[in-house]
Structures are given as C-alpha cells and as structure tokens.
Amino acid sequence: QVQLVQSGGGLVQAGGSLRLSCAASGTAFSVMAWFRQAPGKEREFLARVSWSGTMQDTADSVKGRFTISSDVSNVYLQMNSLKPEDTAVYYCAVGGKWTIRESGYDYWGQGTQVTVSS
After folding, report:
1. Residue 73 has what pLDDT?
2. What is the pLDDT of residues 74-100, one digit of tens each?
3. CB-CB contact of 102 with 35 (8 Å)
C-alpha cells in the first residue's frame, strides 16, 4: 500500500519559516517533489529531488527562499522568508519521471495548509 504522509505546515507570520515533511512508503520511486495550490489557482510546481539526492531544482518563483532536501524515503521543504502570497495547500508527490508536470507524478500526499499572515 502506497502512503505519503505529510507533516508540518500551519500559520506563520510574514517573514517566518516553516518546514514541511513527507514520508513515503510502499512504492519505489525516482523523484520526489513539492507542489502547492492556492485558492482559485492551478497547482504549482515548487521543487524536485531525485531519490539519490544528486539532482534537484527549485522553481524560480521560490528560489532562494525554499529548499528541498531528502533522506532515504523522506522529502522535506524548508520555507524561509514566507510571504502572504505563499498561502496555499502544499502537496508532496513521488513518481518515476524527472518532470515539473503534476501529471508525471503517481502518488500524492494528503496536502497540508500553510497560511502566512501579513
């Protein structure tokens, strides 16, 4: 049974930091990624990392503030200098393709709300 269990998130003031975690089990995968979806908007790619950790990249929209990391079957998203526009539901995902497209990911976490107050 495939499970992606997310933790972290919550309410933070602008300028603050949060760390999201995602534990994956029950499947083999090559790539782990983070996406987010704000109300009324499409799901947005944030960052991806290969299972080995040797490849990673971050979307320009959050580069310099968000950092993806991984160990074994866990993936993390460190978010610094948070802004109100970062408010969204954040999702982790795993799959076999090195892609930024959500259709390329096979399994998704349950989502976690991040709210940044001004």
Report:
1. 86
2. 999 999 999 999 999 999 999 999 999
3. yes
Would residue 30 be called left, alpha or beta, if left means φ above 0 and alpha means ψ between -120 and 50 degrees? alpha
Residue 44 and residue 34: Cα distance in Å, rounded? 9
Residues 6+ apart with CB under 8 A from 107: 2, 4, 24, 27, 29, 93, 94, 95
CA dist 93 and 102 (Å) reads 8
Residue type, 100: I
Cα 84 from Cα 14, distance rounded (Å): 6
Beta bridge partners of 58: 47
Query: Helix, strand or coil for residue 103?
Result: helix
Q: Could you tell me where the beta strands, DSSP code E, fall in the chain?
A: 3-7, 10-13, 18-25, 31-37, 44-50, 56-58, 66-71, 74-79, 88-95, 107-108, 112-117
79-98 as b/e: b if 16+ CB within 10 A: beebeeebbbbbbbbbbeee
Q: Which pLDDT score, from 0 to 100, does residue 28 have? A: 79
